[in-house]
Fold this sequence. Notes:
Shape: elongated
Strand content: 15-25%
Number of domains: 2
Order of helices and strands: EHHEEHH
Distance between the termini: 62 Å
Number of helices: 4
Amino acid sequence: MRTLTVTEVARHFSAVLDRVARDQEDVILVRHRRTIARLVPESRAENALEVLGDLYRTLDDRTASALAAAVRRARENTGEALEKLRNPWAS
């Protein structure tokens, strides 16, 4: 965590933002020796598979198996629906 004055941040705003983004470092802004704000890097974007993977690791075996089966069934059903969309005359 780095502490900078508001004046320093104003003079080097682009460089400060670059550092926050690149180094994932918080920056505390100080005015008259008082903390007034904090620049915090945005958390990394996660796709649905990563989120479900994190969730999966927190579940007990029975619940995890049920979730995996439900996802598998949904994928199988989606495939059929997509095939019918591609070929509306498919039986």
